[in-house]
Structure formats: structure tokens, C-alpha cells
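Example S7 (C-alpha cells).
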């Protein structure tokens, strides 16, 4: 399993920020510093690229992965629009 923490916004941590003078994991997409206590299971879930709709098995290691428990698909970015 990916060791990056799951943030309460649904993304895996994708950066390190400063909170109360300490470096902590965060999500720069949502400006979220709150960590979920436990990662939910992704077994049987699918993720869809937010740009091109490519579908993959949900995985914490997918780029910009976002767990969306109340939706048919989780979300990620496959790189189809480039990386810069």
C-alpha cells in the first residue's frame, strides 16, 4: 500500500506544508491539512481520469488520486494533457 496519508478531502497527500511551525503532509489541490485516521479499501473500485475519462483500477499510487465514496468512480489524472 502507498504510505502517503489519506487526506479528509479524499486525495492522497501530494505535498508537504507547514502547520503550527511543523512540516506536515497536505493536499495542495484542496488546501487540506487534515488526515483521515484510516484509508478505506479500494477493492473493486475504479477511477476515471478527470480529463479524458480513461478508467483504471483505483489505486492510492495513481497521480492526483481522489477517493470519492459516493460516486461511481474515484478520480485521478493519467497524464493525457501533459505534466507541466
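Recovered sequence:
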Amino acid at each position: 500500500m502507498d504510505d502517503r496519508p489519506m487526506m479528509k478531502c479524499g486525495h492522497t497527500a501530494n505535498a508537504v506544508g507547514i502547520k503550527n511551525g511543523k512540516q506536515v503532509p497536505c493536499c495542495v489541490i484542496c488546501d487540506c491539512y487534515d488526515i483521515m485516521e484510516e484509508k478505506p479499501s479500494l477493492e473493486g473500485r475504479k477511477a476515471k481520469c478527470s480529463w479524458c475519462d480513461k478508467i483504471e483500477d483505483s489505486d492510492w499510487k495513481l497521480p492526483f488520486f481522489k477517493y470519492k465514496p459516493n460516486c461511481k468512480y474515484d478520480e485521478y489524472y493519467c497524464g493525457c494533457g501533459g505534466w507541466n
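Notes on this example. The longest strand covers residues 15-19.
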